[in-house]
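## retry 2 of 3
previous attempt timed out at serialization; input unchanged, resubmitting
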Amino acid sequence: MGNNVAEMLAELRADHKNMTLLLNLLEQEANRLYEGQDADYELVYDIMRYMTVYPDAVHHPKEDRVYAELKIVRPDLSKGLDRVLVDHRDLAKLGMKLRNDIDSIMAGTALRRNVIVADAMRYVQRLRDHMHWEERDLFVRIDEMVHDGHRLIVDSVDHDSEDPVFGPEVEEQFGKLFKSIQQTLDASHM
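## retry succeeded, writing output
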């Protein structure tokens, strides 16, 4: 990725599409629980493990980096965007709460369905709202910064990391998750 703003923004947009796929799977499993059916807790666990090791640890820091650059280069465009950092912290907390719920269930602890459903749906809705806001507002402002000629991010801190599911190689621990995504995509093209 390096420090090219346009390339970074393209990667962030691709990440949003990928995260949307996972949120759809998570919502499906939460709906199964809500309807009294059994959920695939291993799938939910894999989704939340991914969400806490890639979006929370790599994707959001990239967005923070671009936002920081926007504040430096175009302070006029950064007004009203302070919620970026707050949203990322809140999403990380919600994600860890749900991941801990699933960890508890997989360890044999009984949790009420309504707690899991509520935590899952809160996380799904909050992340969807956040991504929509970024696409409509933050990313539009960054596009303007790029259009005005700003190409490189001064901050040289490297937040680069390959996506363990959607990157060039699927990490072994995410194999089942990748297969679930493929099945979902195949089913949607029928």
